[in-house]
Design brief:
With 461 residues, the chain is an alpha+beta fold. The chain has 14 helices and 16 strands. The longest helix has 19 residues, at 317-335. The chain starts with 6 loop residues before the first helix and ends in a 5-residue tail after the last strand. It comes from Planktothricoides raciborskii GIHE-MW2. Keywords: Carboxypeptidase, Hydrolase, Protease. This is D-alanyl-D-alanine carboxypeptidase. Pfam families: Peptidase_S13.
Length: 461
């Protein structure tokens, strides 16, 4: 074991994790505080850092002065290489709101490849004569968590490129097809039918189209996005099983998984998270995968869904840190695979960066460069992620506040606490490559409504 985990390899591992260490010190980790990149239990590694814990104590007293009980709070901070900096009830699972999405993200990464794309098959049941499909248009869903107006408009234009402008039969929805965050196939089918035919557009769809068209025209010599014309005469029918004897027309690919997760986490989309959790096999599958990958006791991750909507979703602060660290390790291992010539992806490719992104980062004062996930319920405010520092390298933290409805007060004090820690440890003079956004190399691939993600499968004989 010691031969395999040589001091040189450990030094490389630490460097990837944002920790500078002398070569001769690396081997001590094999028999000392442990291997970096995993979350630690303070009962096994000794006490906490006294100055940091003193700052934490002041924070808790300030909450108490506002009438918020300290036993409703959970906090954990540690360095990458295993030094526990601060702990307040860090092993107790508590309502974590959208920190649950970190578990869903980890389970998704553990199941699918980073470039995985969910497929939606569009098929014909009948014959195409001229511009008319004499029969049904069939949609076989494949759990695309972000099939929205833009995707439907691009799909309509793809059908027009095949020469199809009218359908005499029905729009048949089969498989797992959900659109615009709807939770049933019937409503999703109605929305798709409307989006495929510009004559039926609402003001909302028209606004979406206008934005797509403007963005397309910004590209050098790119034409405006066409308005699709696919008029479906029949009704929307939902089928448990895909119809037989169909002809494949188009294979629609979702955004790559890495981009889906980034959008889900930046905007904290409950719908996307729950679609992904269902596609993974359900919330208990997510819980099992996440706990094992994070290396924490399963009782520290208690979930009722993949989004965090509901107080029954409970995660310990220690486990929250473990989830983030496990994702970082997954990305590091993926980058080290033979033949992988692309820039290594990082946590910043999956989660919002403070000072850079909008979404849940708006109106926050989190230290710039931190990669985080927020969580909010009416009586819960959570913040977890990684804070880049000069003296401690990357500091992994989770702050789970509960027991009061002053959500903005919780948020402000979370941000202030991180700034206090940053003042204590110093601002890193250089950005950490481990939390620098590298994806994508192909911008077109991640554009919502990109025509290139519709593969034409049929041609006229």
């Amino acid at each position: 074991m010691l031969e395999l985990l040589s001091s040189g390899l450990i030094s490389v591992w630490l460097e990837l994790s944002g920790v500078q260490i002398r070569q001769q010190d690396a081997g001590e980790l094999l028999v000392g505080s442990g291997i970096p990149g995993f979350v630690w239990d303070e009962t096994k590694i000794g006490g906490v850092d006294s100055p940091t814990n003193a700052t934490l104590e002041e924070y808790l007293k300030a909450l108490e002065a506002k009438g918020v009980r300290r036993d409703n709070q959970g906090i954990w901070l540690q360095t990458t290489h295993g030094e526990l900096l601060a702990n307040h009830q860090g092993n107790i699972p508590r309502s974590a709101a959208s920190i649950t999405k970190v578990a869903t993200s980890l389970a998704a990464l553990s199941t699918w490849k980073l470039d995985h794309q969910f497929e939606t098959l569009i098929a014909a049941r009948g014959q195409v004569v001229g511009e008319v499909l004499e029969g049904d248009l069939v949609i076989v869903g494949g759990n695309d968590p972000l099939f929205v107006w833009e995707e439907a408009i691009a799909l309509g234009n793809a059908l027009n490129r095949l020469g199809i402008r009218r359908v005499t039969g029905n729009l048949v929805i089969a498989g797992d097809f959900l659109m615009n965050g709807e939770d049933n196939g019937q409503k999703s089918g109605e929305l798709l039918k409307q989006a495929l035919n510009a004559q039926l557009w609402s003001a909302e769809i028209t606004d979406t189209y206008n934005l797509m068209s403007r963005n397309a025209q910004k590209k050098l010599a790119a034409p405006a996005t066409p308005k699709p014309q696919v008029a479906i005469a029949g009704q929307v029918l939902v089928s448990k099983e895909p119809p037989t004897e169909t002809t494949p027309l188009i294979r629609h690919y979702s955004l790559p998984l890495v981009e889906l997760l980034k959008l889900m986490n930046i905007h904290s989309s409950n719908t996307m998270a729950e679609i992904l959790a269902d596609a993974l096999g359900g919330v208990q599958v997510v819980r099992k995968i996440a706990a094992e990958a994070a290396g924490v006791p399963p009782e520290q991750i208690q979930l009722i869904n993949g989004s965090g909507l509901g107080e029954e979703n409970r995660i310990s602060p220690r486990a929250a840190c473990g989830l983030f660290m496990a994702i970082q390790n997954y990305l590091r291992r993926d980058a080290a695979k033979p033949g992988n010539a692309t820039a290594p992806l990082t946590l910043a490719d999956l989660f919002p960066i403070a000072g850079t992104d909008g979404g849940t980062m708006e109106d926050r004062n989190i230290p710039a460069g931190s990669v985080v996930k927020t969580g909010t319920l009416w009586n819960v405010s959570a913040l977890a992620g990684v804070l880049p520092t000069r003296d401690r390298g990357l500091v992994w933290f989770a702050i789970l506040n509960g027991g009061g409805d002053d959500i903005w007060g919780f948020r402000d004090r979370q941000d202030q606490l991180l700034h206090q820690f940053l003042k204590q440890w110093g601002i890193s003079p250089e950005p950490f490559p481990q939390i620098t956004r590298n994806y994508p190399s192909n911008r077109e691939l991640i554009e919502i409504g990109a025509p290139s993600r519709n593969e034409l499968l049929w041609q006229r004989s």
